[in-house]
Amino acid sequence: MHKDTGRLSKADKELIIVATGVVNRCPYCVIAHGALHRIYSKQPALADQGIVNWKLSDLSDRDLAMLEFALAVCRADNITEEHFQKVERHSFDHENAGDIGIIAAFFAMYNRITHYFDLCPNKFYAMGRIPCGDPGGNTEHA
Question: Which pairs count as long-range contacts for 90-95, CB under 8 Å and 24+ apart, including other chains?
C-alpha cells in the first residue's frame, strides 16, 4: 500500500480508501486515510473536499475516473467492459484497474471490521494539518 506502483501513487491509493470509507460511513477510514492522503498529496483540502462530495471537488478528470471505478467495485456493481474503458481513457490499463478494484474491495470489507470493533481514529484528526515543527501539537496560531 505504501509504495508507488503502476499508475497509482500512494496519494491515489489513500484517495480510493477515503472515498470507500465515505460510501460505507466508516469514520475510522475516512479520518485515518484522509490524514495520509493530506500528507502524500501535499494538497490538504482535497481529502476534505472528497469527504464532503468528491464529485464536486478539485480532483482531476483522471482521479474522478479512478474513484468512479473504485466505488463501482465498493458498491458491488456488476463491473463491465464499459467500466474498464472509462478508466483506460485516463491511462489506466486492466492491471491498474485491478489494483483500484482490489483496494476498494479490501477496504469495503475493512470498513465493516472497523464498525464491528468500533475503532476510534483519535490520533489521526490532526495528522497532516499541524506543521511537523510544532511538537506540542498546538493548533492555535496567531
Answer: 90/61, 90/62, 90/65, 90/66, 91/7, 91/62, 92/7, 92/65, 92/66, 93/7, 95/6
Secondary structure percentages of the chain, helix, strand, coil, to 5: 65, 0, 35
Q: How does pLDDT run across 62-113, given as a tens digit for each residue?
A: 999 999 999 999 999 999 999 999 999 999 999 999 999 999 999 999 999 9
What CA–CA distance (Å, rounded) separates 115 from 125?
18
Tell me the per-residue pLDDT of 40-53, one tens digit each, with 9 for 90 and over.
999 888 878 878 88
pTM for the full predicted model = 0.82
Do residues 126 and 137 make contact, with C-beta atoms less than 8 angstroms apart?
yes
Angle at 19 between CA 13 and CA 22, to 5 degrees: 140
Which three cell numbers mark 42?
501535499
Q: Are 75 and 53 in contact (CB under 8 A)?
A: no
Place of cell 477515503: 18
What is the C-alpha separation between 65 and 123, in angstroms, rounded?
31
